[in-house]
Amino acid sequence: MTATSAASSGHSTGNGTGIRLNVDRSACAGHGLCYGGYPEVLDCDDQGDPVIVRDPLETAAEIDAARAAVQVCPERALTVESV
Ligand code: SF4
Asked: What is the pLDDT of residues 15-36, one digit of tens each?
């Protein structure tokens, strides 16, 4: 019996998978800094509200962009979480 398969325990952190970007619409003021700067992970709807375009985030570049978007949001309306 060889048991070499791994990584099926439910959640992972920091390895490029299982990260989600969330927007708190009640906190968002619609500046557009997030989707203007990081269109690979955020777009906007007709009202100018941000829309998450990748859920969950899949690549290291997407995760980096999401974390950068969190940093530029002056309202702290964006968060990332492990999923
Ligand atoms: S930067 Fe923050 S406040 Fe501005 S649109 Fe994006 S989520 Fe909303």
From this structure: 545 899 999 999 999 999 999 9
